[in-house]
Write a structure and sequence with these properties.
Number of domains: 2
Largest sheet: 5 strands, mixed
Strand order of the largest sheet: 1-2-3-5-6
Shape: elongated
Oligomer: single chain
Radius of gyration: 22 Å
Strand content: 15-25%
Structural class: alpha+beta
Helix content: 25-40%
Number of helices: 10
Number of strands: 12
Order of helices and strands: HHEEEEHEEHHEHHHHEEHEEE
Length: 306
C-alpha cells in the first residue's frame, strides 16, 4: 500500500476488514478452520481443505482505491540511496527473497485482494513459487509498472484502456482458482479464475457483507460484548438492532457486539433489546442468565420499531 493510503484515516479499519473478510472468502469456497496470523511483518491465512490438507495464503491487499486497477507492493529497498538507478535484476531478486521468506513461513499461495469502498472487488491467487516468475515477466515487459519508480510492484488487475494495461497478463497466466487449490476438477467448477464479477457470486458477497458488518460493529463497540463486557473476540457476534436486518441495514450503527450465547437468546426470542436494556423472557429471569436481565447496553444505540 502506498504511504499516502497507509497513513490515511481508514487504513486501520481497512486492515481489520481484510483480516476478517479473507478467511470468510476462503470459507465460502470450501476451506475449513481458517485463522489469520502474522510473522516477520507479513500477514497469512492458515486453512485446510475438506480432506485435511493444509494451506497457507500470504495475504496482500492491493493499494488502489479505484475499481479500474490494483497492485501490491513488496516493500522498500533498505540502505539504497538511489533505488531508481538499480538494475531490474535487483527488483526481481527482492521479490524472490520476499516470496521465499513467505514460503519459509509456510505459505503455499499468495492471495492478492482488491478492495474498493470496503468491498472485495476482485482477488487473484498464485502458487507461492510462481510469484517471482510473474514479477519477472512483468518487469521484463513493463518495467515502469513493475518498478513503480523505486518500489517492486505487481499489478494484478487493470481494466483501463491504457497501452500498458495488458501487464496484468504476466500475472493472470499463473492464476489458479481457489477451487483448483482444493482439487476440484474443472467440470465441477462454475466459478473459475477470471474477472472479479465471476468470482464474487451472490452467496460469497452475502458472506463478505456479514464479515464486514462484524468489523464495523466491533470497531464501534470496542470489540467487547455490550451486555456482559466479555472481550474474547472469537466468541463475539455482531447482532442487528431491533428493526434492522442483514438485507438492508449493515452500517456500524445498525448493530451491537454481543457474546454468541446472548446473541442466540435474541434470535430465539428469549431476550430482546428494549429502551437501551437487555431484557430476558420471564423463564430466564431466574438461573444462570438472571444477572443479565435489564442490563444496560454499554454502546450507544438508536432503536427503531420492527
Amino acid at each position: 500500500m502506498s504511504k499516502k493510503l497507509a497513513r490515511g484515516p481508514e487504513s486501520y479499519l481497512n486492515e481489520l476488514l481484510v483480516l476478517e473478510m479473507a478467511p470468510t472468502l476462503l470459507s465460502s469456497k470450501g476451506f475449513e478452520s481458517t485463522r489469520v496470523f502474522r510473522s516477520g511483518g507479513m500477514k497469512f491465512v492458515q486453512t485446510q481443505g475438506p480432506n485435511g490438507e493444509n494451506f497457507v495464503f500470504w495475504l496482500k491487499q492491493g493499494w488502489a482505491t479505484t475499481t479500474a486497477f490494483s497492485a501490491i507492493q513488496f516493500g522498500m529497498f533498505q540502505n539504497e540511496k538511489s533505488p531508481t538507478l538499480l538494475p531490474d535484476s535487483k527488483f526481481v531478486d527482492y521479490v524472490a527473497n520476499r516470496s521465499n521468506g513467505a514460503k519459509q513461513r509456510g505459505a503455499t499461495h499468495i492471495l492478492m485482494i482488491h478492495m474498493v469502498e470496503r468491498r472485495i472487488q476482485n482477488y487473484v491467487v498464485l502458487k507461492i513459487e510462481d510469484v517471482p516468475l510473474a514479477y519477472a515477466a512483468q518487469i521484463a515487459g513493463w518495467p515502469n509498472r513493475a518498478r513503480n519508480t523505486k518500489t517492486p510492484t505487481l499489478y494484478f488487475e487493470d481494466t483501463r484502456s491504457s497501452p500498458d494495461a495488458e501487464c496484468v497478463d504476466a500475472v493472470t497466466r499463473f492464476e489458479v482458482s481457489l477451487e483448483s487449490v482444493l482439487g476440484v476438477s474443472d467440470d465441477q467448477v462454475t466459478d473459475t479464475a477470471g474477472s472479479g464479477s465471476k468470482k464474487i457470486t451472490a452467496e460469497v458477497e452475502r458472506r463478505l457483507q456479514q464479515a464486514k458488518f462484524r468489523v464495523l460493529v466491533g470497531d464501534r463497540c470496542g470489540w467487547k460484548c455490550v451486555v456482559s463486557g466479555f472481550e474474547v473476540k472469537e466468541v463475539l457476534d455482531a447482532a442487528h438492532l431491533p428493526g434492522r436486518d442483514w438485507r438492508n441495514h449493515n452500517c456500524a450503527s445498525d448493530g451491537i457486539m454481543i457474546r454468541s450465547d446472548l446473541h442466540r437468546l435474541l434470535d430465539l426470542g428469549l431476550a430482546e433489546i428494549s429502551r437501551g436494556l437487555f431484557v430476558l423472557s420471564k423463564k430466564l429471569r431466574e438461573g444462570q442468565y438472571s444477572d443479565f436481565h435489564e442490563r444496560p447496553i454499554s454502546c450507544s444505540i438508536n432503536e427503531v420499531s420492527p
